[in-house]
Amino acid sequence: MKTLLTRSPRKAANLILKNELVAFPTETVYGLGASVFVEEAIQKVFIAKGRPADNPLIAHIADIDEIALLARSVTQAAEQFIEAFFPGPLTIVLRKSERVPDIATAGLETIGVRMPRLPAAQSFLKACGVPLVAPSANLSGRPSPTTWQAVRADLDGLISCILQGDQTEIGLESSVVDCTGCVPILLRAGAITIEQLRAVIPVTRFGEHDATTIAARSPGLKHRHYSPQARVITVAQPSEAAPALDDAAYIGIDAPSSAAAPKSFKRLLICQSVEEYARSLFHFFRQCDEANVKVIYCQTVEEIGLGTALMDRIKRAAQD
Ligand code: TXA
Ligand code: MG
């Protein structure tokens, strides 16, 4: 299959209406879109990504009114979060309507709904005229793509089209919050922080559940994720990173001193802020793979604000 590269939301949307797959930019990472109501198209998403069939997909909407097509009911907690954070990098899990095919939600009774705020994503979704399921547009297990080139590196020849846009602004995926009950539960840390969620609903839970409960509610979290080919090692200080050992790379906020590291790193990225670190992480992982780096040292950051989501991705990448 030839993968069309285009900057036209209209051209890309026409392919969605022919039940084809289109990758598109959002403010978090690039997504791989297919019509939420077409089983055959959704099946192609799982095949192209090599995604396990038990990992549910998120539905993306252009307009708040479309939630009624996807969800059976909207809880009060969901309403408050929608009011505060839509459009934006937050996915809200609700009880799903019968119209949504089971394959989209991997058989779950619930569906994640998100309204991206990136103008290019909004024009594309509007041109499609239907909500789209869209997982991150990477091969399953690889770091999420933050550029159209990263999408092409993983999915060229496997999907019909890439809607080209800029490097994504946030660089980490949306926060996923379960709003099916009275008390919201943050299942996946992301760009909307637990502090921001609690400013709206103070009882919002996070991190109090054991791994089994979280895995049952959000099956995707148990799968291997975000991994570069290189081994990822976390370090509190740059002095703990040892470039002499191997073809090594370093990413963090503090720069390694040249005295402590006489042999240079094959790839080195010093970020000015946690935001820049988050924006750069997955891109850096991919660059390291291209350069055949064997070990990537990632400096840890404090787990507050966006640092919670950033550390979540780093720890998952370091797990294997
Ligand atoms: O920022 C994002 O969320 C990106 C962009 C493209 O929107 N999408 C994304 O999708 O990261 P994906 O499929 O790579 O990650 C979705 C996560 C998975 O961990 C999945 O298990 C979880 O959300 N999820 C999806 N539907 C769910 C549901 N009904 N209940 C619980 N968790 C769900
Ligand atoms: Mg993903």
What would you say this structure looks like, in words?
It is built from ten helices and 14 strands. It has helices at residues 9-17, 39-49, 67-70, 76-85, 119-128, 148-155, 194-200, 211-217, 274-290, 306-318, and strands spanning 4-6, 22-24, 31-35, 58-60, 90-95, 110-114, 132-133, 161-163, 175-178, 185-188, 231-235, 248-252, 267-270, 295-299. The strands form two sheets. It has a ten-stranded mixed beta sheet with strand order 1-8-2-3-7-4-6-5-9-10, sandwiched between helices. A four-stranded parallel beta sheet has the order 11-14-12-13, with helices on one face. Helix 1 (9-17) crosses helix 5 (119-128) and helix 9 (274-290) packs parallel to helix 10 (306-318). It is globular, with a radius of gyration of 19 Å. The mean pLDDT is 94. It binds threonylcarbamoyladenylate and magnesium ion (MG). Threonylcarbamoyladenylate binds next to strand 5, strand 6 and strand 10.
| Number of extended strands | 14
Category by helix and strand content: alpha/beta
> What is the averaged pLDDT score?
94
- State the end-to-end distance: 33 Å
Please specify the SSE layout and strand pairing.
Blueprint: E1 4-6, H1 9-17, E2 22-24, E3 31-35, H2 39-49, E4 58-60, H3 67-70, H4 76-85, E5 90-95, E6 110-114, H5 119-128, E7 132-133, H6 148-155, E8 161-163, E9 175-178, E10 185-188, H7 194-200, H8 211-217, E11 231-235, E12 248-252, E13 267-270, H9 274-290, E14 295-299, H10 306-318
Parallel strand pairs: 1-8, 2-8, 4-6, 5-9, 11-14, 12-13, 12-14
Antiparallel strand pairs: 2-3, 3-7, 4-7, 5-6, 9-10
Helix pairs in contact: 1-5, 9-10
The structure holds threonylcarbamoyladenylate and magnesium ion.
